[in-house]
Amino acid sequence: MAITKSAKKAIRSSERKRVMNVRRRRAVHDTVKAARSTRGADRKAQDAALTEAYQAIDKALKRGIIKKNAAARKKSRLVKLIKKAK
Fold it and tell me: What's the pTM?
């Protein structure tokens, strides 16, 4: 349990950061899942879903939620999956 005033403040700020990090990670997961589910859809829907997934991945990368290679891997696998379905 935090005793000092600064330790209590650090706990509050880390909890706010944790909530935002979880939200950003969930956004990446949901958009990638949505993009994967557009495999049989038309080209326009696939491109829109892919763009949205790229945005979520890039934002998570920028904020330090995922690492650079993890972001590149997610993008690469997503494009590979969609191209394979065509």
Answer: 0.85
